[in-house]
Design a protein that fits this description.
By secondary structure, the chain is of the alpha/beta class. It is built from 10 helices and 9 strands. The chain is elongated. The termini are far apart. Bound molecules: nicotinamide-adenine-dinucleotide.
């Protein structure tokens, strides 16, 4: 069998986008690596630098030293979540929204880069929370991450809630912590109702997030996967594009704009 060229595959995706009434884009850490944020599982990924066991909810709430390590992560891994800018893939996904071509973006990412690229808040479902806010586990008060980081820079070891003295936790979902209920329900509904699901930059091994493309596929939607490495759902994909998210998505949006003509 003759292998399809990148151009043929991109054109197939453009055709699907043109025909789709409801497209869900599902993203993972791979959509943000071109912004300089390491993913977890690739060589050099986050788990080669950090102990995943430090990110359990149980450890965070029960062990002050673990809390201190997490709050001061910037000093260990050398970055803060707010240092990063959207890349070509985020910008292309935001373009898809402007072109009226997406129902929503379901993301496993906690970096906020879809919104920073221009996707509207109400179109982005953050399945694993975010690292732009911290929340008090006692009274629910919320603090912008940069505010908490300022306290850390001023010498605070483990930040507490200013309102009630309760424990602050980043809004990113930790291992062993429940997924946000409303977001999970909404993502499930949108996945089951879409007619096209485009996965970008996810190994699709983290559950229950990885169920979303499966719900879409099982409900009759076409599944497209754009990813550098293998994914667990490659066998289900109608179109499978191997490559970097940024250049592929730029090509997709350019092709779509040519097909849609002046808007
Ligand atoms: P993962 O690390 O399991 O998989 C990432 C996938 O993206 C890999 O298959 C890799 O081959 C691919 N990839 C890497 N760079 C790419 C690129 N430029 N273009 C296309 N593909 C690329 O990530 P996951 O599936 O999202 O699951 C890991 C969990 O890690 C998620 O729950 C997520 O919340 C969390 N996470 C988030 C961030 C972030 O917010 N940016 C970063 C690291 C981890």
């Amino acid at each position: 069998m003759v292998e399809k060229s990148r151009e043929d595959l991109v054109n197939e995706l453009v055709d699907l986008l043109v025909d789709s009434k409801r497209t869900v884009v599902f993203t993972g850490a791979g959509v943000s690596t071109e912004s300089g944020i390491p993913d977890f599982r690739s060589p050099g990924g986050l788990w080669t630098k950090y102990d995943p066991m430090d990110f359990t909810y149980q450890k965070f709430i029960s062990d002050r030293e673990a809390r201190k390590r997490i709050w001061h992560m910037r000093e260990t891994i050398g970055f803060s979540w707010r240092d990063f800018q959207p890349n070509a893939a985020h910008i292309a996904i935001a373009e898809l929204e402007k072109l009226g071509k997406i129902d929503c973006v379901i993301t496993q990412n906690v970096d906020g880069l879809h919104q920073k690229a221009g996707n509207s808040e109400e179109k982005v479902i953050q399945l694993h929370g975010n690292m732009q806010w911290a929340k008090c586990l006692t009274c629910g008060s919320r603090y912008r991450f940069e505010e908490v980081e300022r306290w850390l820079e001023q010498g605070v070891e483990v930040p507490d809630c200013v309102q009630c003295g309760g424990m602050l936790k980043p809004e990113g979902v930790f291992f062993g912590e429940a997924m946000p209920v409303l977001e999970t329900m909404e993502a499930e509904r949108r996945s089951k109702e879409c007619d096209l699901c485009v996965v970008i930059g996810s190994s699709l091994v983290v559950y229950p997030a990885a169920l979303m493309p499966q719900y879409a596929h099982n409900s009759g939607a076409k599944l497209v996967i754009i990813n550098e490495g293998e994914t667990d759902l490659d066998g289900m994909a109608h179109v499978r594009i191997w490559g970097k998210a940024g250049p592929v998505m730029e090509q997709v949006v350019a092709g779509l704009k040519r097909r849609l003509g002046p808007v």
